[in-house]
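Design request, tokens follow.
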């Protein structure tokens, strides 16, 4: 018939079983098939994928949907030239990332990571009197106030933290007490106990946090990066952590992933490493399916796509 032909790329399996997504899409006016080979794209109108493949450019695709919010690995210009529309999954990760970032802050404040570290040696360690703190009254600065950022600010506000944020347009955002623009980044982060990064990786945000910004942060401050590794100068971060110029970091994303065995970040007690899993949730497939289904309806009506990137 004139149903859309959709393929689910095998790379989706990194996040959830492709069959789950197909089940969620059964009521759709589209033929959805799971691809066993990422380059077998003949006859498809669209593909749902985790990663980018060169073969996408030479196939006759109309549309690519990425199950990630961050599509920095996709070649925007080449897609434009081929007339292929790209949509992303921004909007699905606010709860999962918000919970994870709140968890990072609680771990550091309550030292939970230290006690877990001590379990293998059966160490009954009581913290120094000034080692622990509580979140109410502490300040978090959230850089990037989209889905992720607002997932963080809502939770931080709910536990009684002072919440500030950085966005390009200085208009008010729910749960944020003070909004700064990127040109006042240093002022925004300089007296925060936590700095959370929730921006996309773009030419403007690459290396956003380097040694100057790390020096501007408090010595008892923690950097939380759930955005992309490239937003932080990782060597500068390792140096700041090693020299005690900041108190610690929770990192979900890295310049190279998986984080190489020989990275010093693995060994630092004041660093929490999570494996690009801050956004993982059992609701992931369902939430992506809602965007895919909406875009299938829009394609059929000739409308522009939700979460349209290029
Ligand atoms: P989003 O589009 O909803 O929000 C991004 C926000 O950042 C937007 O409000 C945008 O205006 C703002 N922004 C862009 N450039 C900026 C700058 N220079 N300064 C300040 N703000 C700027 O996207 P999202 O769903 O919140 O995701 C954000 C990014 O987080 C993604 O692009 C992705 O790289 C990353 N991410 C990581 C995970 C993970 O598993 N760790 C999961 C989802 C998203």
């Amino acid at each position: 018939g004139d149903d859309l032909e959709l393929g689910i790329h095998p790379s989706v399996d990194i996040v959830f079983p492709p069959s789950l997504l197909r089940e969620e899409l059964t009521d759709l006016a589209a033929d959805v098939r799971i691809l066993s080979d990422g380059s077998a794209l003949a006859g498809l109108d669209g593909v749902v994928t985790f990663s980018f493949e060169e073969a996408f450019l030479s196939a006759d695709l109309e549309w690519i949907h990425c199950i990630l919010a961050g599509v920095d690995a996709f070649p925007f210009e080449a897609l434009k030239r081929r007339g292929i529309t790209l949509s992303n999954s921004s909007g699905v990760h606010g709860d999962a990332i918000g919970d994870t970032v709140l968890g990072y802050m609680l771990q550091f404040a309550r030292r939970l990571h230290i006690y877990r570290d001590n379990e293998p040696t059966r160490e009954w360690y009581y913290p120094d009197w000034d080692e622990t703190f509580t979140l109410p009254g502490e300040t978090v600065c959230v850089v990037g106030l989209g889905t992720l950022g607002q997932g963080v600010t809502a939770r931080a506000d709910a536990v009684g933290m002072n919440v500030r944020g950085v966005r390009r347009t200085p208009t008010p955002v729910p749960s944020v007490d003070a909004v700064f623009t990127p040109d006042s980044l240093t002022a925004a982060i300089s007296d925060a106990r936590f700095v959370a990064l929730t921006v996309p990786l773009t030419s403007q945000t690459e290396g956003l946090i380097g040694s100057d910004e790390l020096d501007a942060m408090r010595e008892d401050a923690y950097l939380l990066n759930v955005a992309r590794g490239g937003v932080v100068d990782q060597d500068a971060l390792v140096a700041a952590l090693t020299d005690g110029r900041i108190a610690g970091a929770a990192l979900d994303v890295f310049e190279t992933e998986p984080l190489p065995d020989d990275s010093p970040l693995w060994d630092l007690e004041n660093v929490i490493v999570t494996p690009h899993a801050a956004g993982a949730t059992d609701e992931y497939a369902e939430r992506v399916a809602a965007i895919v289904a909406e875009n299938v309806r829009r394609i059929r009506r000739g409308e522009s796509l939700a979460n349209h990137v290029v």
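Comment from the thread starter after seeing the answer: thanks! The chain has two domains: 4-92+281-301, 94-273.
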